[in-house]
Design brief:
It is built from 5 helices and 6 strands, in the order αββαβααβαββ. By secondary structure, the chain is α/β, with parallel strands linked by helices.
Length: 147
Amino acid sequence: MAKEKLIKYTRFALIVVGGMVFASLTAHAAGVKVIANSSVSASTISADDLKGVFLEEKSELSDGTHVEPVLEKGGPAHDAFVKDYLGKTDSALQTYYRSLVFTGKGSMPKAMGTDAEVVAYVAKTKGAIGYVSADAAAEGVKTLEVK
């Protein structure tokens, strides 16, 4: 009888903890929205394509649209995006970009100080893709769903 109670308690605890972890991850990823210039025809982007664009491994989406990544210089949205979508820390990302520049394989992407600056740059720059806080105003750009 005690063994059955222990098993039930363990299952319950795993379900509760699992739910908390899932909610935390969902809330964290939900803190950022990916935006694009209206010239980008896609309405969705795969997580792999997004990572490829921001790590400068890809300069075109699967439909042939040329894209240019735009970062924020720091802050919660930047930290969440870099961690959740690129699997890096800001420091590791900066080191990665410097190595691309040093080896001649890439350049430092544009980096803006605020959500509003990212939105303004993406709105006026053909092919630009960036990210902002989920609650940021994003007039003049389209939001891409990340799949």
